[in-house]
Design a protein that fits this description.
alpha/beta; about 30% strand
């Protein structure tokens, strides 16, 4: 990847949606549709939704609710992208797995014609014991992905990731080296870790790769023992927060400008200075 190359061809408005999903799928989807409508009404050409947009529920419920990629929940977002003529990140929805007792944690980008542009399945699974917080073993009920995905579109090349992936900088360098100029991070970051790590890690990924970062997030209390940090953000390639959500459901919106990336990459051409021989 050469620092002088700028892949975003024109400015566009992007919206990152913040949600408070629950075990009530109908409620969650209605909230998502309303926020997409509002963001598109503000002129957003790209709209991103958070991890677990359709359902935050006990693991068995999630697995039972998992769908094929042509299932009704995926189709709802596909049709909304077509209706609003937007690029839409439906991220994430529980997809049927090839492994019994598990689902896939899957994000899909749909285009303005309703076409499926890219599919990404979460690679790094959240298996942790958080001090004064929950013990979570995502690998017990999620089948991990194995493919790095860059979605090429007429407005940008989107590097795809999900939540816990954020802690693995090598993934984002791989995305940037593959041409990504906008990094997508739909998340449900825990309240306990988010207060110290969320903003720091997002800004680091932007700065390291001189790329825009769009990070839609879950917020607030969900089910018993599960709460999310929120603070949905859009960050520019210099590491500056261009837009951020306050508390509760809503969205933030910012202009994705190729000139900001061009300036950052020319000012500090670190991507050209990597020593791949050592």
């Amino acid at each position: 990847m050469v620092s002088g190359i700028v892949l975003i061809v024109e400015r566009f408005l992007a919206a990152a949606i913040q949600m408070n999903s629950s075990a009530d799928r109908e409620r969650n989807l209605a909230q998502a549709m309303d926020l997409i409508d509002e963001a598109a009404g503000r002129g957003a050409r790209f709209v991103g939704l958070p991890e677990n947009v359709d359902l935050i529920a006990p693991h068995g419920v999630k697995v039972e609710a998992a769908e094929q990629l042509d299932g009704p929940t995926f189709a709802l977002f596909r049709d909304k992208a077509r209706e609003k003529r937007i690029w839409l990140l439906a991220g994430t929805i529980a997809e049927v797995s090839t492994v019994d007792g598990k689902a896939r944690n899957t994000a899909v980008i749909y285009g303005p014609d309703g076409e499926t542009v890219a599919i990404y399945r979460k690679i790094h699974l959240f298996d942790v014991e958080i001090q004064d917080g929950p013990t979570i073993r995502e690998s017990d009920y999620v089948e991990g992905g194995s493919e790095v995905v860059v979605a090429s579109t007429p407005i940008a090349r989107f590097g795809m990731s999900i939540c816990y992936d954020l802690r693995f900088p090598e993934l984002y360098r791989r995305l940037a080296s593959s041409g990504a100029d906008v990094l997508l991070v739909p998340s449900a970051f825990t309240s306990q870790t988010g207060k110290d790590h969320w903003e720091v890690l997002l800004r680091a990924r932007a700065i390291e790769n001189f790329a825009w970062v769009i990070a839609p997030a879950q917020t607030g209390q969900h089910i018993r023992g599960r709460s999310s940090h929120g603070h949905t953000m859009i960050i520019d390639p210099w590491g500056v927060i261009a837009a951020q959500c306050s508390e509760g459901p809503g969205f933030c919106i910012a202009e994705i400008d190729p000139a900001v990336m061009e300036h950052a990459r020319k000012a500090i051409p670190a991507l050209d200075h990597r020593r791949l021989d050592v």
